[in-house]
């Protein structure tokens, strides 16, 4: 299973469910960095220093960070979802077969938003979205950043 770093706004119930799936997750709170207003680039730098992929609801800022700094330990951006069990399952399904998320940006969206989100992000970021049944990975046009199961 993977080593993840959940940012400050990421829901603790989802973290707990992902831990039950076997993932090793460090939260911002556990790292002693909660409530400090740490800028997103520093959150990513900390995750890189600990060899952990960032787990966040802050999609737009972290997609931008991925575009500017693609050499990271992975970024998983999620839409808000009140169904924590479904969100945890979708994240686990998307990353379960991965040995590493190094350099990858994984997008986890509510099922009804997948097509709209893919088009929206494609138009905004110039990135093409590679889709699977329940998640999609953003990949730079011409880059091999998509996970194998997203191809």
Please state the overall shape, judged from the principal axes of the Cα atoms. Answer: globular
Strand order of the biggest β-sheet: 2-1-3-4-5-7-6
Judged by helices, strands and strand pairing, the structural class is alpha/beta
Spatial extent as radius of gyration: 14 Å
Distance between the termini: 21 Å
Q: Tell me the major beta sheet.
A: 7 strands, mixed
Low confidence ranges: 113-123, 126-151
Element-by-element helix/strand order: EHEHEHEHEHEE
Walkthrough of the structure:
It is globular, with a radius of gyration of 14 Å. Strands 2-1-3-4-5-7-6 form a seven-stranded mixed sheet, sandwiched between helices. The longest helix is centred in the middle third of the chain and has 12 residues, at 84-95. It is built from five helices and seven strands, in the order βαβαβαβαβαββ. Helix 1 packs across helix 4. It has 151 residues and is of the alpha/beta class. Mean pLDDT is 80; it is low at 113-123 and 126-151. Helices cover 35% and strands 19% of the residues. The protein has helices at residues 12-20, 40-49, 59-68, 84-95, 114-125, and strands at 3-6, 24-27, 53-56, 75-78, 105-108, 128-131, 136-139. Strand 1, helix 1 (12-20) and strand 2 form a beta-alpha-beta unit.
